[in-house]
Amino acid sequence: MGLTHESVGRGAAGSSLTIHKQHETDRIIALAGNPNVGKSTVFNALTGMNQHTGNWPGKTVSNAQGYCEADGRGYVMVDIPGCYSLMAHSAEEEVARNFICYGEPDGVIVVCDATCLERNLNLVLQTLEITSQVVVCVNLMDEARRKGVHLNTRLLSQRLGVPVVCTEARGKKGLKKLMQAMEKRLQEPSPSQPVQVQYITPLEEAISLLESSLNKVDLHSLPSRWLALRLLDQDEALLVGLEEYLDCDLLSLPGVRDALSQAEELLNRHGLTGETRLDAIVSSLVRQAEAICDGVVFQFPSSAEERDRKIDRILTSKGTGFPIMILLLAVVFWLTITGANYPSQLLAKGLFFLQGKISQGLLFLGAPPWLEGLLADGVYRTLAWVVSVMLPPMAIFFPLFTLLEDLGYLPRVAFNLDKYFKKCSACGKQALTMCMGFGCNAAGIVGCRIIDSPRERLIAILTNSFVPCNGRFPTLIAILTMFFVGAGTALFQSAACAILLTGIILLGIVMTFLSSKLLSSTILKGVPSSFTLELPPYRRPQIGKTIVRSIFDRTLFVLGRAVSVAAPAGLVIWLMANVSVNGQSLLTVCSGFLDPFAQLLGMDGVILLAFILGFPANEIVVPILLMAYMSAGSLVEYESLDALRTILVQNGWDWVTAVCVMLFSLFHWPCSTTCLTIYKETKSWKWTLISILLPTLTGMAACAIFANIARLF
User: Fold this and answer.
1) Whether residue 181 sits in one domain with residue 206
2) This prediction's pTM
3) For 286-296, how does the pLDDT look when each residue is reduced to its tens digit (9 = 90+)?
4) Which of 27, 179, 469, 626 is the most buried (most CB within 10 A)?
């Protein structure tokens, strides 16, 4: 089914978005809501797999579009970022507000959580100030019943002046009624006017002064009352967007400028300046939400609510919270290690078998031996290594991570770590991005978009590579097994590796805190910002959807980026192994040049060169090691860990070397995929370079100190 592209909006910052319509008569519906209200579940249930994703122009905030049909009418659903307010204190809030204002959607569905309706009405009231074409979707009715919450939605609809529809999006209940209510609202020739927020008297007088002047200006579809309020709260980003949207500078118009001066003077006389004025606006919204909910929401005692509180007392307490976090981390790694072994071997056999067929095909077509070696032994074999080593662990880790996220546990992790990040003058949300880095540092860096403060977002980006991604797990696991676990059953080896690996990762977490503190005390000085951390209710994960979403949204996305940089790396590695200078390969020459410096770090030149050539993908470090030690012309596949250990010991490895290699694997430059992602997120080569130097210098210092102390004793 072909999609046509139609530009919506007038190009205001953060709102110019290509909408994918299937018919000219399709309606465009914005889907808004607070975080953790089930907005994405509503979106997915309505659109299924008919989705398109991308980034908002000029923003590092993702958007999702989907197509659905109801009663013969087509709808393009635009899932705008989840936010608590439209006052634009973050990139998400700015994008959400700009799309509702300038994107000119036909209607807006505001999704609310039935278990905490009063808080969600803040966003509803702000949306109603912009447009009357609104339907309120009260979602999570099943959880509300479980917690003993009952709602009088008919009274709520009367007080808001817009339709209110109850849904259970996970069970796809009420969604048909939701779309019918939206269509009915859009078809009303003169829809009923929604409730109007009443502000304190000085504010109302100032709004009236400005409204009279704004009514003389062509504001397109923007309400003059809302615009007057925004001019009074002095939102600079809004003024930039307005100038672009209206093709004029409102504040340069004499009538508007004079009215604003009079309004400012009026508010100043009543002591409403700066933060005080903003507090007065927010307080009015809160009071109105409380008044609307009076007699609408009824709370009865619930065993489920008490049970959730008991679980929280265990998961977030000082005594049990951290041991449980560490135990869960070890279990996730054990499942990843154990589950990835067989699929990885199977995938490697299949891909390497295909390599032989490719070589035969190239020779059959008359390709010269050097070209066959370059393409089959260089480019393809490197790609096969990366795919076979990366795909199985990611396909296990990311679904496990997403299951914990859907269950509601990860916000508890952020809660536990928040005070420690605050001591480092960083943001508690960094705990979530750090957890994502275990799967892939590139994914963790993209996840840093959830941090509102630019300074704290930079700290999270620059320190994310201190936790090892699954590309470094194979190297760490192999060395742990060979030099520190020893013989035993497969179950014992995997469990012992998981425990030791957890210890190594805890070291990485400690270094994340220390490096965050260093950055916040030097080049990124600042005071930690406050943020709203909501502990959502515990929910039963949707396992099937979780697996599909994590594989397509995370695993394949990250794998695609890794493959794109691994192909040219394979070409370079093959050339270095097969091009000779004075009878020695470039690989041998370069490793010899690096050897004196590498010895200071407790390693040798081959090891350091393997890490350098493994820059495109950490998965190929061990194969490059073997290729250099065995003087092979292509990446070598080792038959067993015992055989690999024999080769390493023969080339001078001991337990000190093993520890130094693990330390350097834990702390060294991010892979090329991660560096590329850092540049795309920061738009700065300076910060990309710092993100490389910070862990690398840390790793070199750690290796040098350990190696020299070990040699002394």
Assistant:
1) no
2) 0.70
3) 999 999 999 99
4) 469
